[in-house]
Design goal:
Blueprint lengths: L7 H4 L17 E6 L3 H4 L16 H27 L6 E7 L11 H6 L24 E4 L4 H4 L2 H7 L4 E6 L5 H11 L5 E4 L9
Parallel strand pairs: 1-2, 1-4, 2-3, 4-5
Length: 203
């Protein structure tokens, strides 16, 4: 038997009818570039020269860099140019996989298992030239797949009054995916949009 106060209209809500935030004003939006760095987005990076345990096959590596040069880098630059246009407006931030401890003791278990052991300030920790930050754009080193867990990203976004987050990266199945999911569990009046290139699927 149903409870006397049962409300079927509240039990199952139609997602299509649920209230959603409207389009974001530029002053309330941010673009987050996730791990577009030398370690994993440059053929000379340690991930491809034996420094990463999570190596891919040579065929997959060639496919990855073909997609990266054919479309991904251009998409990054288009996003960055649009976000930076007009001066005041969209907040632009960058994350990189990197330790903040010279002995790498702060690296998370997942990164350790994957061989993502990147010293602070190293060449591998720097953003690639095609997604290089401008002066004043924060670059947040992180030691796990979620920048909400191991950086001050959430505090920065809240302080800036950001409600809409655009997430871009080179691979959408790990750090980009974890970041966008993390937005949902951080609470607050937020909407998010994942923007990326599925450049690591098998050819």
């Amino acid at each position: 038997a149903l409870r006397a106060d049962f409300r079927p209209d509240l039990a199952l809500r139609d997602p299509a009818r649920a209230a959603r935030p409207g389009p974001a004003a530029r002053q309330r939006a941010a673009l987050l570039m996730v791990d577009a760095q030398n370690f994993n987005c440059d053929e000379r990076g340690a991930l491809y020269s034996g420094g990463g345990a999570a190596r891919i096959s040579r065929e997959e590596e060639k496919h990855f860099f073909a997609r990266l040069s054919a479309s991904v880098a251009d998409n990054w630059q288009a996003l960055l140019e649009a976000a930076r246009a007009g001066g005041e407006g969209v907040v632009v931030l960058h994350t990189v996989m990197a330790s903040q401890d010279g002995r790498l003791r702060d690296t998370g278990l997942d990164y350790r298992a994957s061989g993502f052991l990147i010293p602070p300030g190293s060449w591998d920790a720097r953003p690639v030239a095609t997604a290089a930050p401008l002066r004043g754009e924060p670059v947040l080193p992180k030691t796990s797949s979620s920048p909400f867990a191991t950086t001050a990203l959430d505090s920065l976004l809240r302080s800036a009054g950001v409600t809409h987050l655009i997430v871009a990266g080179c691979v959408t199945d790990q750090c980009v995916a974890v970041t966008t999911v993390s937005v949902c569990v951080c609470g607050g009046e937020r909407d998010w949009s994942g923007v990326g290139e599925r450049c690591m699927e098998r050819p």
